[in-house]
Amino acid sequence: MTPAARAQAAIELLDLVIAAARDDGAAADTLVARYFRERRYAGAKDRRAVRDLVYRAVRAWGDRPDNGRAALLAVARQDPDLAAWFDGSMHGPAPIGAAELAAVPSRLPGWVLPELSPLVDAAEQEALLNRAPLHLRVNSLKATAEELLRHWPEAVPIPGTTHGIELPAGTDVERDPAMAQGWIEVQDAGSQIIASACGAKAGMTVLDLCAGAGGKTLALAADMDGEGRLIAADSVRDRLARLAPRAARAGAANMIETLLLDPGREEAALASLEGRCDVVLIDAPCSGAGTWRRNPEARWRLTPERVARINALQARLLRVAAPLVRPGGRLVYAVCSLLEREGREIIQDFVSFDPLWRPVPWNGRGRPWGDGTLLTPHHDGTDGFFFAVLEKPC
Ligand SMILES: C[S@@+](CC[C@H](N)C(=O)[O-])C[C@H]1O[C@@H](n2cnc3c(N)ncnc32)[C@H](O)[C@@H]1O
């Protein structure tokens, strides 16, 4: 493909990505794969170059652009080589019109900006869209960080984590024997820090209320040395199903029970745990705004209405979880979001409704924020998270 044809392909793909984001259709990665399946003439270099253009455009636009051409032109504004490929050649895009370069998009959606924590300054906003590093958690049930640092001499320990190591981006860990042996999990340092903040220990009863495919469940299992009762609950069967093979690989299958919840009827399924849990973790469903560096296209799918719906669910899950904690036990609330209403404000409301809950100070990575802690990409090198650790009165 000529460079101009690559630019045209990127425009066509961006049109598809924009339509899918608007209509809740397939993810950008799926669309890219499908596009090239139907265009076998494109070689590996072409595919890489087009994909790169598509994602540069996605990262440039906080709000969903009108069309693929406008999306790519925002990249061309700062890249004279790309601008030159708008040459009107047979397979290339039409030349750029005088007025077309006027739009300078914001990298974050306009409506999100006033919702962000004030700690999210310009440097944080920039970092929220930069490429994410590759973080691993060493599974202490099977291996030590020292062993993995020997296995990958290019790896470095992640400050502020107990078992985190960072590898150069692009390292193929999925096919490395360390993965098959269950020595490691791919997990952002922020998630590792939140699991540590739960303070789970051997012999405890711990509920991971929104366990998904078990990223944090497995970290909790390791902190519990594989001993105790660990319940992984979620309302989506497919997500919970993905936990079983991971738990087996990690050597934690014996201690993990899974519990499928019926949304709106969680209390009944959890009644037997009332007042019994040493720790309840609510890794709540959220906007995901803290993970946009991994999934920038999600900005184009999020709406204020969607955040309002999720926000109501977050408040309800706090009410479901609170009675399950034993006196003196911990309730840990976390979101991968830097929106005030999903983090600081929701915990402020919860604690003001029931002021006996005592916020437990966190001395690790992150910045104190309200009754919790904010982890951010620029300050902490993590995805964006808010978490709060609350102790139930005895
Ligand atoms: C942020 S994700 C959890 C990620 C997971 N803890 C991890 O570390 O990989 C939030 C999860 O909440 C689940 N969820 C949504 N509504 C729920 C409900 N009513 N009860 C329990 N889980 C729910 C979603 O299915 C999703 O898996």
Automatic annotation (TrEMBL):
Belongs to the class I-like SAM-binding methyltransferase superfamily. RsmB/NOP family. The keyword tRNA-binding does not apply. The active site is at residue 336. This is 16S rRNA (Cytosine967-C5)-methyltransferase. Keywords: Methyltransferase, RNA-binding, S-adenosyl-L-methionine, Transferase. S-adenosyl-L-methionine binds at residues 234, 262, 283. Its EC number is 2.1.1.176. InterPro entries: MeTrfase_RsmB-F_NOP2_cat, MeTrfase_RsmB-F_NOP2_dom, RCMT, SAM-dependent_MTases_sf. One of its GO terms (biological process) is methylation.
